[in-house]
User: Fold this.
Amino acid sequence: MTITVAITGASGVQYGVRLLEVLNQLGVDTQLVVTKSGQELIGIETQYSLNYVTSLVNRTYDEMDLAAPIASGSHISNGMVVIPCSVKTLGSIAHGISSNLVTRAADVCLKEHRKLILVVRETPLSGIHLSNMLKLSQFGAVIVPASPGFYTRPTTIEELIEVLVARVLDLLQLDHTVSRRWGD
Assistant:
Protein backbone atom coordinates (compact mmCIF):
# COMPACT_ATOMS: atom_id res chain seq x y z
CA MET A 1 0.00 0.00 0.00
CA THR A 2 1.24 3.48 -0.92
CA ILE A 3 -0.30 6.56 0.70
CA THR A 4 0.50 10.21 0.05
CA VAL A 5 0.27 12.46 3.10
CA ALA A 6 0.22 16.24 2.96
CA ILE A 7 0.59 18.56 5.93
CA THR A 8 -0.66 22.07 5.18
CA GLY A 9 -0.77 25.35 7.04
CA ALA A 10 -3.69 24.71 9.34
CA SER A 11 -3.41 24.31 13.07
CA GLY A 12 -3.31 20.63 14.03
CA VAL A 13 -0.08 19.39 12.46
CA GLN A 14 0.07 16.94 15.38
CA TYR A 15 -2.60 14.91 13.58
CA GLY A 16 -0.37 14.59 10.53
CA VAL A 17 2.73 13.69 12.52
CA ARG A 18 0.89 11.01 14.49
CA LEU A 19 -0.62 9.56 11.31
CA LEU A 20 2.88 9.32 9.82
CA GLU A 21 4.20 7.60 12.96
CA VAL A 22 1.46 4.97 12.80
CA LEU A 23 1.78 4.44 9.03
CA ASN A 24 5.52 3.96 9.58
CA GLN A 25 4.86 1.40 12.35
CA LEU A 26 2.42 -0.43 10.07
CA GLY A 27 5.00 -0.59 7.28
CA VAL A 28 2.93 1.47 4.85
CA ASP A 29 4.86 3.06 1.95
CA THR A 30 4.41 6.80 2.45
CA GLN A 31 5.05 9.87 0.34
CA LEU A 32 5.03 13.26 2.03
CA VAL A 33 4.51 16.88 1.05
CA VAL A 34 4.72 19.54 3.74
CA THR A 35 3.83 23.06 2.68
CA LYS A 36 5.95 25.97 3.85
CA SER A 37 3.20 26.97 6.27
CA GLY A 38 2.97 23.38 7.47
CA GLN A 39 6.71 23.40 8.15
CA GLU A 40 6.35 26.57 10.20
CA LEU A 41 3.50 25.08 12.23
CA ILE A 42 5.50 21.91 12.99
CA GLY A 43 7.98 24.20 14.75
CA ILE A 44 5.30 26.28 16.45
CA GLU A 45 2.86 23.57 17.57
CA THR A 46 5.07 20.56 18.27
CA GLN A 47 8.36 19.51 19.77
CA TYR A 48 9.24 17.75 16.50
CA SER A 49 11.73 18.85 13.89
CA LEU A 50 11.03 18.66 10.18
CA ASN A 51 13.88 16.11 9.99
CA TYR A 52 12.02 13.87 12.43
CA VAL A 53 8.80 14.13 10.42
CA THR A 54 10.54 13.34 7.12
CA SER A 55 12.37 10.41 8.73
CA LEU A 56 8.98 8.69 9.11
CA VAL A 57 8.34 8.41 5.36
CA ASN A 58 9.78 6.70 2.30
CA ARG A 59 9.83 9.79 0.05
CA THR A 60 9.38 13.52 0.43
CA TYR A 61 8.57 16.09 -2.21
CA ASP A 62 8.82 19.87 -2.28
CA GLU A 63 5.42 21.56 -2.43
CA MET A 64 6.36 23.31 -5.70
CA ASP A 65 7.69 20.18 -7.47
CA LEU A 66 4.91 19.73 -10.02
CA ALA A 67 7.12 17.20 -11.84
CA ALA A 68 7.03 14.81 -8.85
CA PRO A 69 5.57 11.36 -9.56
CA ILE A 70 2.50 12.03 -7.38
CA ALA A 71 1.50 14.83 -9.78
CA SER A 72 0.71 12.22 -12.45
CA GLY A 73 -2.17 9.80 -12.75
CA SER A 74 0.27 7.21 -14.08
CA HIS A 75 1.87 7.03 -10.62
CA ILE A 76 -0.03 4.36 -8.74
CA SER A 77 -1.04 4.97 -5.13
CA ASN A 78 -3.84 3.94 -2.83
CA GLY A 79 -4.80 7.50 -2.04
CA MET A 80 -3.98 10.67 -0.20
CA VAL A 81 -4.62 12.23 3.19
CA VAL A 82 -4.32 15.99 3.68
CA ILE A 83 -3.93 16.31 7.45
CA PRO A 84 -4.47 19.01 8.52
CA CYS A 85 -6.14 20.54 5.49
CA SER A 86 -6.30 24.31 5.47
CA VAL A 87 -9.40 25.95 4.02
CA LYS A 88 -7.14 27.54 1.40
CA THR A 89 -6.10 24.06 0.27
CA LEU A 90 -9.71 22.87 0.50
CA GLY A 91 -10.88 25.73 -1.72
CA SER A 92 -8.11 25.20 -4.26
CA ILE A 93 -8.89 21.49 -4.56
CA ALA A 94 -12.64 22.18 -4.81
CA HIS A 95 -12.06 24.55 -7.73
CA GLY A 96 -9.39 22.54 -9.56
CA ILE A 97 -6.62 25.02 -8.84
CA SER A 98 -3.44 22.94 -8.93
CA SER A 99 -0.98 25.65 -7.95
CA ASN A 100 1.24 23.40 -5.82
CA LEU A 101 1.98 19.70 -5.42
CA VAL A 102 -0.58 19.20 -2.65
CA THR A 103 -3.47 20.50 -4.75
CA ARG A 104 -2.22 18.75 -7.91
CA ALA A 105 -1.82 15.38 -6.16
CA ALA A 106 -5.30 15.77 -4.66
CA ASP A 107 -6.65 16.60 -8.12
CA VAL A 108 -5.00 13.42 -9.43
CA CYS A 109 -6.71 11.37 -6.72
CA LEU A 110 -10.09 12.80 -7.70
CA LYS A 111 -9.65 12.27 -11.43
CA GLU A 112 -8.28 8.75 -10.95
CA HIS A 113 -11.04 7.89 -8.43
CA ARG A 114 -8.57 7.20 -5.65
CA LYS A 115 -9.24 7.76 -1.97
CA LEU A 116 -8.84 11.43 -0.97
CA ILE A 117 -9.27 12.23 2.73
CA LEU A 118 -9.27 15.87 3.81
CA VAL A 119 -8.93 16.48 7.55
CA VAL A 120 -10.21 20.04 7.67
CA ARG A 121 -9.13 22.10 10.67
CA GLU A 122 -11.07 25.35 10.85
CA THR A 123 -13.74 26.83 13.08
CA PRO A 124 -16.20 28.35 12.68
CA LEU A 125 -16.97 27.31 9.11
CA SER A 126 -18.34 29.82 6.62
CA GLY A 127 -20.85 29.00 3.92
CA ILE A 128 -17.98 29.06 1.42
CA HIS A 129 -16.09 26.40 3.43
CA LEU A 130 -19.22 24.26 3.71
CA SER A 131 -19.96 24.65 0.00
CA ASN A 132 -16.42 23.57 -0.88
CA MET A 133 -16.71 20.55 1.42
CA LEU A 134 -20.04 19.56 -0.15
CA LYS A 135 -18.62 19.95 -3.66
CA LEU A 136 -15.62 17.76 -2.85
CA SER A 137 -17.76 15.17 -1.11
CA GLN A 138 -19.97 14.96 -4.19
CA PHE A 139 -16.85 14.27 -6.28
CA GLY A 140 -15.64 11.47 -4.01
CA ALA A 141 -13.44 13.12 -1.38
CA VAL A 142 -13.98 12.15 2.24
CA ILE A 143 -14.24 15.15 4.54
CA VAL A 144 -13.07 14.49 8.10
CA PRO A 145 -13.46 17.50 10.37
CA ALA A 146 -10.72 17.56 12.99
CA SER A 147 -13.19 16.92 15.77
CA PRO A 148 -12.24 13.83 17.77
CA GLY A 149 -14.80 11.83 19.71
CA PHE A 150 -14.93 11.65 23.48
CA TYR A 151 -16.46 8.16 23.84
CA THR A 152 -12.99 6.78 24.64
CA ARG A 153 -12.82 9.17 27.62
CA PRO A 154 -9.50 10.71 26.60
CA THR A 155 -7.50 12.29 29.38
CA THR A 156 -4.62 13.72 27.31
CA ILE A 157 -4.22 15.68 24.10
CA GLU A 158 -2.36 12.68 22.67
CA GLU A 159 -5.42 10.46 23.24
CA LEU A 160 -7.63 13.02 21.47
CA ILE A 161 -5.23 13.03 18.53
CA GLU A 162 -5.27 9.23 18.41
CA VAL A 163 -9.09 9.10 18.22
CA LEU A 164 -9.00 11.17 15.04
CA VAL A 165 -6.00 9.36 13.56
CA ALA A 166 -7.78 6.04 14.18
CA ARG A 167 -10.74 7.25 12.10
CA VAL A 168 -8.39 8.13 9.23
CA LEU A 169 -6.74 4.70 9.47
CA ASP A 170 -10.20 3.11 9.36
CA LEU A 171 -11.01 5.09 6.20
CA LEU A 172 -7.76 3.80 4.67
CA GLN A 173 -8.92 0.29 5.64
CA LEU A 174 -5.80 -0.35 7.71
CA ASP A 175 -5.89 -2.77 10.63
CA HIS A 176 -4.75 -1.00 13.80
CA THR A 177 -5.18 -0.70 17.55
CA VAL A 178 -4.45 3.03 17.85
CA SER A 179 -7.62 3.90 19.76
CA ARG A 180 -10.52 2.07 21.35
CA ARG A 181 -13.67 1.70 19.31
CA TRP A 182 -17.22 2.53 20.32
CA GLY A 183 -18.39 -0.07 22.80
CA ASP A 184 -14.92 -1.45 23.59
Q: What stands out?
A: The helical segments are 13-25, 36-45, 50-55, 87-94, 101-111, 127-138, 157-171.
